[in-house]
Amino acid sequence: MTQILSKIKNGETAIVCQIEESSLKVKLMEMGLIEGKELQVLYRAPFSGPMAIDVGGYVLSLRKDEANLIMVELKPNKA
């Protein structure tokens, strides 16, 4: 089931499915958010501030409106 990145909880891992069409799409792709890429939500700033995600070993900060453009699929946790 796909959902928007801004709804993923801290510590969860997801796979990028698509980025919605916008003026930011190319910039997000240049930052490594491409289809099939695995990412992990690290933490969020309070009061709907930016969120930090790990993409391929580096930390990327996204505003909520930017994270709303990214559709992801949750990766099941290994038990």
Rounded average pLDDT: 94
Number of helical elements: 2
Largest sheet: 6 strands, antiparallel
Q: From N to C, what is the helix and strand string?
A: EEHEEEHE
- CATH topology (fold) name: SH3 type barrels
**Which strand-content bin applies to the residues?**
35-45%
Residues in helices, as a percent range: 10-25%
Strand order of the largest sheet: 1-6-2-3-4-5
Per DSSP E runs of 2 or more residues, the count of β-strands stands at 6
- What do we call the CATH homologous superfamily? Ferrous iron transport protein A (FeoA)
CATH first level: which class?
Answer: Mainly Beta
The shape, in one word, is globular
How far from one another are the termini? 20 Å
Low-confidence stretches: none
What is the domain total for the residues?
1
Overall radius of gyration? 11 Å
Q: What CATH architecture would you give?
A: Roll
